[in-house]
# Entry
Amino acid sequence: MTALLIIFATAIFVLFAGLTKNRSWLQPLALTGCGLALGVTLFELLGAGPGGWNHMYADMFEFTDYALAFSAVALVSALLIIGLSGYGFRSLHDTLGDNYGLILFSLCGALCMFSFTNLTMLFLGIEILSIPLYVLAGSRRNDLSGNEAALKYFLMGAFTTGILLFGMALVYGATASFDIHSIASAISDGRHSAGMLHTGIILILIGLGFKVSAVPFHFWAPDVYTGSPNLITAFMATVVKTAGFAAFYRLFSVGFAPAIDFWSIPVAGMAALTMTVANLTAIFQTDFKRMIAYSSISHAGYLLLAILACDVPGSEGALLFYSLTYSVATILAFGAYMTIAEPNDDGSFEAFNGMSKKQPLLAAVLAISMLSLAGIPPTAGFFGKYFLFTAAFAKYPWLIVLAVINSAVSIYYYFKIIIAMYFTREENDYAVVTSPGIRWVVVLGLLLIAFLTIVPGSVYALI
Amino acid sequence: MDAFLPLIPFLPLIGFAINGLFGARLSKTAVGIIGSGVLLVSFLLSVACFNQVAASGAIQHTMYNFFTIDSMRVDFGFLVDQLSVWMMLIVTGVGFLIHVYSIGYMHDDEGFWKFFAYLNLFIFSMLLLVMGDNLLMLFFGWEGVGLCSYLLIGFWYTNKEYGKAARKAFIMNRIGDLGLLLGIFLIFKTFGSLNFTDIFSRLPEMRLDPAAVTLICLLLFVGAMGKSAQLPLYTWLPDAMAGPTPVSALIHAATMVTAGVYLVARCNPLYSLSPDALHVVAFVGMVTSIFAAIIGLRQNDIKKVLAYSTVSQLGLMFIGLGMGAYASAMFHVTTHAFFKALLFLAAGSIIHGMGGEQDIRNMGGLRKAMPVTFWVFLIGTFAISGFPLLSGFFSKDEILALTYAHGGVWWWGFAGFGALLTVIYMSRLLYVTFFGEFRGTEEQKHHLHESPAVMTVPLVILAILSVLGGLLNTPHFMHLGTPQWLASWFGPVIPAADMHLPESTEWSLMTFTTSLALVIIAGLYFVYTRRGNLPVADEAQTGLTRVVANKFYVDEIYDFLFVKPVEIGSRLLHYADTLFVDGIVTGVAKGVERLGAQFRKLQNGNIEYYLIGMVAGAVLLLLSLFV
Amino acid sequence: MEELRTIPIEYYLYLSTVLFCIGVLGVLMRRNAIVVLMCVELMLNAVNLLLAAFSTYLSDAQGQIMVFFIMVVAAAEAAVGLGILVMIYRNTKSTDISLLDKLRN
# Structure
């Protein structure tokens, strides 16, 4: 809660500070806010506990270690993204304060989604997360693809909000409560109407499936990711996905846990479809950002395994670890991508040709993040996949076989980038424009990945 | 010793870090000294380890806890027992020699420092593979060596084909890795642990379903097939010859490709419970060994011949494993590391002397120009052919004898056939390259020279090892060297194979194969040197064969009975390989592509379709209510 | 309150389901973005009706509180949505959602 309050206050502060003439301190301000929030969260997580916040606000929140750990992941992602923003937002002037403000508001929504105990709060969290993003997706007002991205995101988002709410209403009607613990006890006591409850669960599944871009509710993701400004895409691919999955896991592992036999079948189907469709489509992409979009969908497929395995001890740690490594690797990839794609206005794989000679550091970072996303040892991404797959293996061996095959397929497109950077002779005369901010962020991110690689168990200690 | 144990793998890692970060600024001498120096220290430490293992048994050393989830505890730990310390000695010892050799071989390459950095990284991964005390560490090393192999094959990436070969190697290895990974998951599910000691100590008291054990063994074996280039996952290895020759010697002959053999030998308590899995292992090994040897008969690229020979020899090792003769297979791993590294490095020396030429049709008569290379190559050829008392003689014979003892005469016959084919193409390689007249260009003739000492000294050391290596494990009945020393050394890890043959049978088997090999070596000498019977390019077959004078009808008969059918068979097999094996791989790739193209059409940009798609998905999910 | 309960809860359920489906069909069939937005509002109002009905039948206030939250969020969403539409109208002089299909494959 402390983190939530800090971020909220910072957001308002930044919004007003954006009205002043001197905008050079907006980024440091946002960074300070996030850093402070991260510090407090880690402090609460590692020892102090959540303080007296737990039973305020009519038991709408519950600040468990789970909530705090995921908050930390989202805050780390936000810190890295805002760190890159000195570069990513360099052409923004009048709207700079609004952009930072909206990102921070969106982050508030994510923090609500980690700690909710009430469906009302979940709904509000999702909306607080999403509405600023609709605006941010279209923040380049005269850019048609940005406009298209914003419209697609907004219309489909609003549509699924309707479906999600209908599901919540049905669950409420079936169990007489919005509180996830009461819902769980109502289900296990048999005090519910099964038809209404199951329909409600399916509709909520659709709403959350949309947020985490699971097939067949993923159609928005490739287009919106491609059309949005790079940093906003990075935010969507990391913070939004983490928040979506953390909320998904929390709701289904606490609230709907007694009905697991019912919902595990559709979720398993969604997971299988998601990884396969996304990986096979990603093979054909020629544009980096679109490839990352499909890659992020395929990772949603793997992460759904954690939901399926939610009754297996260690699955929440697997989800946490995977979210963290996936987020850091994705943000690093975006950091390196921006330096070549933005100055030359070319996001194709060919733009990376010969990058290892122009910018050895950024090329190495991009290569490592690709290896990590592909899950190749010894990168941290391997442990992420390993934890997820072992957690789900006992119950869904066939799904794990499919997942392992899919992750082998994914190597094909991740390696396209590495081959372009290191093994391609035809070079281009593209300039790589970087900035100290980017270098700081990638070095920090690399250290984090290295740490996670060497002591992967440390993350488990957090939950 | 325990405190120094981590240094063995981490010294090469430090070497990688130094050469990788500062290599561009260091002199080549410094890079070479750092690169090979760390290995020398690692080797010496491995020797110390060996002494300790000999004195007080296996060492288990845990550096720290990787992670603990629920009941699964996985450590970053080392298990140095008789088996792994032996592999460590091979990896660091042979690795050191190859590093030294590379100083000379890669001297004019602009990526000198990169090359040494990658080599060091490879050694680090390989050591993790053999030293890890659990399957996850093994998998780490397993993937690491694959990655380094990828980097090193594609080292001269300016050539597009090279990059392609690198990718093929990587993808084929990944197919094998799928099997290994699934095997690891299944082991964890079954045993609740990944630690070797835990798994094998729990094994006796667990009543396991034989089918489950077979499945585990087969999945692990799929991994071994990929890494050790067994049919049908072998095509990457001949292609991998695109890399620099020391890489072929180190990775694609001496160490990495034997990881599959190591894996099966390490998991021998599991395999011994599943006769079915052992049969599969032996069968795949046998088919591979004959198939690759036949293809090898028709190759004219010196490195390709050696590559197919490696595939064939690995097949022989898997026959040994399949017969339950794990120690014999490890013995062959050892001798093979000596003579195959020797052969590859000698080939590298030839290529170096010939200014990059690899086609044996353009060589010939190199004996005079490159005396040291000639003699070591001769030793290597004789060793692999099973010339009496050389290393290959003992190790190959032991596998064959155990094959006879456990599999019967048919298995023995087929395995022996593969071994004899090896003699044919290896002696052909020797004669065509070193005897007769020089057939290259004037420019090459002028360039021709013996390699510098930094390259020949490692060759000589390897040659000595190739000669004497067999004495490590001589059969009991020969009363020579140290009878069955290696087998008894592996004793605590690998139970001795049961050799229940009378001595006379063993003698006669040995005499039979050896005399056949000697006859072939001698016979081919006449075929290839006296007659000037050169291998010709496929397309020039009719034109050039006419030139060959028909002096002896004996040769024609020999040709007709043996060489031609085998050559036709080999061509057919090669065709079948490109058609089926590659065909299946490309077919699957095509199918995946088509499916992907269909999926791609779904994303047509129109939001109305997206909404309809979502509602269709929703309806589908709602249908699950009625299931 | 009592007379409300004489109408079975199922009736409310059917009514709001029908309303919701009309909203969904409208979203699927109309191409004018503003009408699509109105259909989304219809979906949300179907949910509101259902929540209010449940709330009454369960004698539990939570459902009605949720209705207020939904109304607030719907208003915020509509404001942002109309903003996006104005932006798009400025650039394309149209509010037809099927015209924007440049991002694909």
